[in-house]
Amino acid sequence: PEQFWYAFIPGMPKQFFHFSVIKIKDEKSSDLINKHSLLCQLLALKANEEGTDPAELVSKIYQTAAQLKEHLTADQLLLITQWVDFYTKVPKQTLEQIKKEVSMEMVETTISEHIFNQGKAEGKAEGKAEGRVQGMLEGELKGQRSILENLYRLGVLSAEQMNLMTAPLQQQLAVL
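The structure assignment produced for this chain is given below.
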């Protein structure tokens, strides 16, 4: 059906809504491809294939996905890859070649790989943040040591005072 009904409260009459329904089995792949939607292109893999080159269809899917790559989440890219892998009738070598041509060969193909790469990316981000904080601390300690050395050169601090004040800074720098 293309018309569905539901009501929010018992006292109200039924509310009908009309939805565009695509019946995949009845739809021709070429018609779905021409709708220029990534979802329709993916559905075309499941539709009636008469007159459609499967390799060309997979190529169009990956070209579209590559264009949208920065707007798609890793989860969505994973689902696209899994859908294509499940429904395509293209040889594995051809599929890998198509992925390479449109720079989609590095997209995860399993959920485990996705979770691993996601953890790796989060670890890198945490490492960068920690590195920045560590770098700032190191810079601050070196700056303080430099100020004390300049005060010594100007004669404001004695050698003993400078050594007493720079020793803890040197220790903290060694720990970093």
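Interim note for the steering committee: The helical segments are 29-33, 38-44, 54-68, 74-87, 92-101, 111-153, 159-175. The first helix runs from residue 29 to 33.
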